[in-house]
C-alpha cells in the first residue's frame, strides 16, 4: 500500500511492511524507478526486518511535474521521512543512482545509526561515452524516446528475463524526458568528488 507524507514541502511516497519492533531496513531505488523494484524481495525481507521502501520526489503513484532536485534533496527527504517514522537505527540498501544519496545518508548519520550499507549496481567509474551521450539525448523532447530505447536495448542485451523487462516497461518506462537531466547530474557530478571521498568509518 502506497503511503505519503509531506516532507520538506513536497509529498514523499513510501511504504512499509514487517513488524516495527524488528530491525529497520530502508530500500532506496535508482532514478526513474519506484518502490516496486523490490516487490519480489519483500516476502523474504519482511520476515526479519521492518522494511521501508522510499520513492524519490515525483516517483510515487503520481508523476506530477515537480521542481528540479538533486542528491542533497534526496538525502534530506529520506532522513526527514525516517525521523517522522521514528526510525533511529537502520540498515540501508540502494540500487543504481540511489547509491549517491545512500552514501550521503550514511556519511551524514554515521555508523551508529547506519551500521550497514549495501549498494547494488552502482556505477563507480566514469560512464562510457555512449552512455553519457544517451543520457544527454534523453533530456530533449525530440530524442528522449529513441535514447531511452537505446538504453533499454543495451541493458537487456538480448535477455528474455521477464522481471527485468517488466521493470523497464512499467517502472522505468513511466518517466519522460525530464528524468534525463537528473540522470546526467547524478551520474557525472559525483564522479568529480571521488578524488575527495567521504570519511571512512573505523
TrEMBL record:
GO terms for biological process: antibiotic biosynthetic process; monocarboxylic acid biosynthetic process. InterPro entries: AB_hydrolase_1, AB_hydrolase_fold, AB_hydrolase_sf. Coiled coil: none annotated. Keywords: Dioxygenase, Oxidoreductase. GO terms for molecular function: dioxygenase activity. The keyword Signal does not apply. It comes from the Eukaryota. SUPFAM superfamilies: alpha/beta-Hydrolases. Residues 25-139 form the AB hydrolase-1 domain. This is 1H-3-hydroxy-4-oxoquinaldine 2,4-dioxygenase. It comes from Penicillium subrubescens.
Amino acid at each position: 500500500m502506497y503511503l505519503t507524507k509531506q516532507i520538506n514541502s513536497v509529498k514523499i511516497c513510501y511504504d512499509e511492511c514487517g513488524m516495527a519492533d524488528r530491525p529497520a531496513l530502508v530500500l532506496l531505488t535508482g532514478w526513474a524507478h519506484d518502490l516496486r523494484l523490490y516487490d519480489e524481495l519483500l516476502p523474504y525481507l519482511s520476515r526479519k526486518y521492518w522494511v521501508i521502501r522510499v520513492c524519490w520526489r515525483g516517483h510515487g503513484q503520481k508523476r506530477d511535474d515537480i521542481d528540479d532536485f538533486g542528491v542533497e534533496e534526496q538525502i534530506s527527504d529520506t532522513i526527514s521521512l525516517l525521523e517522522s517514522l521514528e526510525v533511529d537505527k537502520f540498515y540501508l540498501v540502494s540500487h543504481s543512482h540511489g547509491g549517491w544519496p545512500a552514501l550521503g545518508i550514511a556519511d551524514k548519520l554515521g555508523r551508529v545509526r547506519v551500521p550497514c550499507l549495501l549498494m547494488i549496481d552502482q556505477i563507480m567509474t566514469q560512464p562510457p561515452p555512449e552512455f553519457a551521450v544517451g543520457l544527454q539525448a534523453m533530456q530533449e523532447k525530440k530524442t528522449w524516446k529513441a535514447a531511452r530505447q537505446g538504453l533499454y536495448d543495451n541493458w537487456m542485451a538480448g535477455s528474455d528475463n521477464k522481471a527485468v523487462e517488466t521493470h523497464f516497461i512499467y517502472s522505468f518506462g513511466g518517466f519522460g524526458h525530464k528524468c534525463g537531466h537528473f540522470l546526467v547530474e547524478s551520474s557525472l557530478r559525483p564522479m568529480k568528488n571521488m578524488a575527495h571521498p567521504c570519511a571512512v568509518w573505523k
